[in-house]
Design a protein that fits this description.
Mean pLDDT: 91
Largest sheet: 5 strands, parallel
Radius of gyration: 21 Å
Helix content: 40-55%
Strand content: 5-15%
Low-confidence stretches: 3-7
Number of helices: 13
CATH topology: Rossmann fold
Distance between the termini: 82 Å
CATH class: Alpha Beta
Length: 310
């Protein structure tokens, strides 16, 4: 027993300093969470249009493609697996007194996941870099996400040419040059986005609906235009969507639109205008697709705005 304890102590004496040094190194590596926090702290008083949501809006909506005369100062505050509860946190955190338009995606998994969905370790990044009050102990240290920890340590010594985001908050991770043809044919991520326990799915969907209603109430009070949209997906992804969850998604959207007059919703999930080169994988647009999507979305918003004004 004594030898075992000595062995454990020796291992810890080696591992703990290594983890401490590694933790310091990875926190020096540029990341989207810190960048967005710092950008919003500096510019929240100027923002006129804000984009929230998960990776679907993070990849699809390019602020630099949006007309400044119509949408003003625009920033993409979306991120990977950013769920509605986090959207609401960010909307409350950054008081944007000039905000006129709020864009939120309603993806296939939107109503059915909370607390970073299937990636709870992303709480680490929100706590460390965006001051989110996460309670789990693991959220205090990046090394608890060992899957990416080593990659980030290497990035400190060998910085990549592309940090993964542009100055407007849009992700550069899904450029056409990064496309994997196999991921286009394999839409299996739709299964990841499907809740397996239906009772749990219904309960969570009602919680998320309530959060979206809170966001809508804030928008009404502040006279902010709320725009909901569903981004395109390739047929391989759409074919694996669970029919019951999909029906529930549209049931909630229909109810929400009935209860929140003036809210816009645009559904592009199966839009035939988007072709192979517009996708980086089965459910994320490429940079080519993002440019096309942003133009179409902006045009639709302007047309509906004009129609409502008449």
């Amino acid at each position: 027993m004594k030898h075992f304890l000595i062995y454990i102590a020796a291992v810890l004496l080696f591992v703990i300093p290594f983890l401490c040094v590694g933790e310091w190194l990875v926190r020096q590596v540029p990341n989207a969470y810190r960048y967005k926090e710092e950008w919003m702290e500096a510019h929240h008083n100027e923002v006129n249009t804000l984009i929230l949501g998960n990776s679907h809006s993070y990849a699809a909506v390019k602020p630099d493609m949006m007309d400044k005369d119509t949408f003003g100062v625009t920033f993409n505050l979306a991120n990977f697996w950013q769920t509605l509860d986090m959207d609401y946190f960010l909307l409350q955190k950054f008081d944007c007194p000039q905000l006129k338009t709020l864009l939120i995606p309603i993806s296939y998994p939107t109503f059915f996941f909370e607390n970073m969905g299937v990636s709870p370790k992303r709480l680490i990044y929100y706590k460390l870099y965006m001051n989110y009050p996460a309670k789990p102990f693991y959220s205090n240290f990046e090394f608890f996400d060992l899957q990416t920890f080593g990659t980030k340590v290497r990035a400190f010594f060998f910085p990549p040419e592309d940090v993964g985001y542009d100055k407007y908050g849009w992700t550069t991770s899904y450029k056409l040059k990064y496309k994997d043809p196999l991921l286009m044919l394999n839409g299996d991520e739709a299964r990841t986005h499907t809740r397996k326990k239906w009772k749990e799915a219904v309960e969570i969907s009602e919680k998320n609906y309530a959060i979206l209603q809170h966001i809508a109430d804030d928008c009404k009070q502040r006279e902010i235009k709320l725009v909901l949209f569903t981004t395109p997906a390739w047929y391989s992804y759409r074919n694996l969507i669970d029919s019951r969850q999909f029906a529930r998604m549209h049931e909630l959207i229909t109810r929400f639109l009935q209860q929140n007059e003036g809210t816009m919703y645009f559904d592009y999930l199966a839009d035939s205008r988007f072709t192979d080169e517009d996708f980086c994988n089965s459910n994320h647009l490429s940079d080519i697709g993002a440019e096309k999507f942003t133009k179409i979305l902006c045009n639709d918003i302007e047309e509906q705005t004009d129609a409502l004004a008449q």
